[in-house]
Amino acid sequence: MFDMIMTTGVVHLTIGNLVMWLIAFLFIYLAITKNYEPLLLVPIGFGILVVNLPLTFLMGEGEGLLWKFYHYGLEWEVIPPLIFLGLGAMTDFGPMIANPKTLILGAGAQFGVYVSFFGALFLGFNIPEACSIGIIGGADGPTTIYTTVHLAPHLLGATAVAAYSYMSLVPIIQPPIMRLLTTEKERKIKMRQLRPVSKKEKIIFPLVTVLVICLIVPASAPLMAMFMLGNLFKECGVVKRLADAAANELMNIVTILLGISVGATMSAEGFLRPQVIFVFIMGLVAFAFSTAAGIMLAKLMNLFAKEKINPLIGSAGVSAVPMAARVSQVVGAKADPKNFLLMHAMGPNVAGVIGTVVAAGVFIALAG
Amino acid sequence: MSDVTAPMAGKVIEVKVQVGDTVNENDEVLILEAMKMEMPIVAPASGKVSEIKCQKGDSVAADDVLMVIE
């Protein structure tokens, strides 16, 4: 009888397991009731729940089911590039091509990545760990995961959850910073309607971008190549089936595997450490600095530009697409309901994705 | 006479006024959806709605005239 009881998980439960259950329930609750990143928080929350069930060995090396998802999906670097394939098939680079200046805003909004990199070093993290924490400031989940798996896999749960948490909190974190750094007059700046972008330009863009960026930062190639391939599928117009598959079925499948694999890395013994709190703090610092840097850079560009840029679109340089662009629209419309910044903000927003991938490539090349 | 134009390509998800209605400047006259975001379109000037050129569910391009206010 005693032996039989000992084969159940109940007697092996720890306080840590119970704490992680609470975190899992919180994620699932936030996803269902508040609609915070539900496509990710539901599988992540569920992954956390089941990996904290004793004796299930779901993350047992070589045999556990979730370990196999994690190992072949994330450690083999298959899932994040496939997510980027789908993102590419969903992204319209038109606003950025129409106003290439926004590329500068997308690059400038990576400032927070480097601030938090140095902050993390100061707090005692080593260089690969600091790179993984800094990249949270790019507000790009798959890139954060890709970088962390490369450089500091033991921090994966914390960095991934921090990145997705802050992305879902974009509408709460960004507006106070945007209002603080801009005047009412600046928020009312109206921007000229974007010029139409031809199909030819949209087809040439992914081809040129992949050549230029992968030549300059070869370590960004897995993400950048798949991102641009997905975009070429979308824009070339002759492989609609592939574009649809990448943006829908494939994207959904890899999102399930990504979510549950990330959740599965969050066992009590791995996650409940003081280090994780610092990861979250530095992630927030990164995010706030990226937001501020995008705005300040837009203001700086206005000193020299003939046609003024509404600085509210600068904050969209963090790559949370399209949430950050929506926030620019909402904050701008509050200052002037006749002002529509959404499409203007999509320029720095998609440029921010490219900027974050480049930052990740630089980190991996230097610290990997 | 003022035209209410689409600020960007999108889909009309609600027309909040009818021909003959009187509107004030900045009153919401239409809801446009773009990038899965609902955006209220406001009247550029006070006046009477003389013509509505779109209906719920229409896809519109940037700069399309959606309604006319006299």
Key attributes of the depicted protein:
heterodimer, A: 368 residues, mainly alpha, 21 helices, 72% helix, 0% strand, globular, B: 70 residues, mainly beta, OB fold (Dihydrolipoamide Acetyltransferase, E2P), 4-stranded antiparallel beta sheet, 54% strand
Number of spatially distinct domains of chain A: 2
Order of helices and strands of chain B: EEEEEEEE
Number of separate strands of chain B: 8
Largest interface: A-B, 13 and 13 residues
Shape of chain B: globular
What is the CATH architecture term of chain B? Answer: Beta Barrel
Level-1 CATH class name of chain B:
Mainly Beta
**Helical proportion of chain B?**
under 10%
| Oligomeric assembly | heterodimer
Mean pLDDT across all residues of chain B, rounded? 91
Shape of chain A: globular
> Biggest sheet of chain B: strands side by side, in what order?
1-8-6-3
What does this 3D model show about the protein?
The complex is a heterodimer of chains A (368) and B (70). Chain A is mainly alpha-helical. Chain A has 2 domains: 1-56; 68-367, no CATH class. Chain A is built from 21 helices and no strands. In chain A, helix 3 packs parallel to helix 17 (249-264). Chain A is globular and about 80 Å long. The mean pLDDT of chain A is 93. By secondary structure, chain B is mostly beta strands. Chain B has a single domain (2-69), classed as RNA polymerase II/Efflux pump adaptor protein, barrel-sandwich hybrid domain (OB fold (Dihydrolipoamide Acetyltransferase, E2P)), CATH 2.40.50. In chain B, 0% of the residues lie in helices and 54% in strands. Chain B has no helices and 8 strands. In chain B, the strands form 2 sheets. Chain B has a 4-stranded antiparallel sheet, with no helix packed on it. The radius of gyration of chain B is 11 Å and the shape is globular. Chain B starts with a strand and ends with a strand. The model of chain B has no long low-confidence stretch (mean pLDDT 91).
